[in-house]
User: What shape does this take?
Amino acid sequence: MHLIFNVLFMTIVGSIIKHGISLRSKFPGTIISKHKRFSNPIKTQEKELKKLIQKSFYTAFGEEFKLKQLLSSKTLIADFKTNVPIYDYNTIYKEWWYRALSGEQYVCWPGSVKHFALSSGTSEASSKYIPVTKDMIDAIKKTSVRQLLSLVNYDFPATFFEKSVLMLGGSTHLQYNGTYYAGDLSGITTGNLPFWFEHYYKPGNQISRERDWNTKLEEIVKNAPNWDIGVIVGVPSWFQLLLEKIIDRYNLKNIHDIWPNLSIFVHGGVAFGPYKKSFEKLLGKPLTYMETYLASEGFIAYQSRPDVDSMELVIDNGIFYEFVPINNDNFDDDFNIKRSAKTLNIEEVEEGVEYALLISTCAGAWRYLIGDTIRFTSKKLNEIVITGRTKQYLNLCGEHLSVENLTKAIKMLEDEMEISVREFTVIGYKRLNASMFAHHWYIGTDSKVDNKVVAKKIDEYLKILNDDYRVERGDAIKEVNAEILPMEMFYNWMRKHGKEGSQNKFPRVLTGDKRADWVNFIKEENSKKL
Assistant: This one.
């Protein structure tokens, strides 16, 4: 009787959600709001900046830079840029955020900061402490609902909304020192899920609190047969590992043997292209892929319509954006941003041009270099793609290779050689006793391929993709090498650095201490085989 009632109840709930999404998307207010965002994005952004300033001018930061005086300005955005300096993480932490971390109130945002997201991105050695305020948590929820409402564009049946959502993220058991909680952003946001979502959410509160990554995976694998999963949410590399474990444990042909209703993969953090070929080998039928751009600093963009590879920038929910052209006037040789950098607003950007992203947010980030690079694919729809990281450009001698270039080259390699590349990274170095340079690629694949063939093909692709590379390949880059590695090498290195699982991604370009550590790690691992 209880089972029949539950099935009936969930069927009704699914229909209500489906109908509610459809109605909500048709509300005049929603349509007008979206129309305003698209028709006049600069006004929308100026309004958002004004809200941020109005709420924070009595903070220590607001008083230091006289934010209250800006509210009467007729050129608010220009005066804001003049008054407030550009920050990266190191400068804003040393000048401001350390005070909030110590428990001081009204530093960069009203009140005290109760949560800090621990993040090292993919290019920093030590953890960053990113403030996550209540206003930011509310903004993330609001954008999440907006993405949920966009599902009406995908025409799923009502029964789809009865299925569970498996979110593979950080532990909700956050670190607490008596003043603040710290942990992965996914752990913070999952711990703040609305009560009505708990029925749909997997792996559930108990498993999600687990801090040990391998234990968490094992518990999910153990419980997999008990769940009816319709949506999976997480980073591609770790979800691929999880699905492989489930398939292997229960001797399945593919993951749809155990989760026949799995229909959507909501992913983010890294470009999905290099994973897609090997990921789809685990499926029994196609999935709908939805990309999100949820960083530790805020929910920046999401894919709002099917059959596109771009995401809609969220311009009316707690974030003001500036866009920095990537050139020598704005960045030094190590891709550190200059405080004299010239930034553009959303009205001034061009499609097809790569920009670094500065954000000011309702969590107390001000003109903050988030570290990602983006490109507009549609100004009309405010749609972007992530192209890489400012610190992950490969630029030894003017080749200016972005992560997007590197990822496209790997995708071309997969297509031509009919192989699956699970992970990859590349280092650049100066050759001994020479003024020439070299690139060394590390390719994670189980396919049997020749190092020299792979290196030659990647070299050819990059010459097509990037004119600067083609020029420097003849003048300064003497050689390009490739080394094929088992995937376990990449996982073990991440495990060694405490970056296993959750939202952690393998760096596409390794520099400095990380480069040296990786090279030594590979030598040690190879020596064990001798």
Summary: The longest strand covers residues 368-378. The two ends are 64 Å apart (CA to CA). Residues 329 and 341 are 7 Å apart (CA to CA).
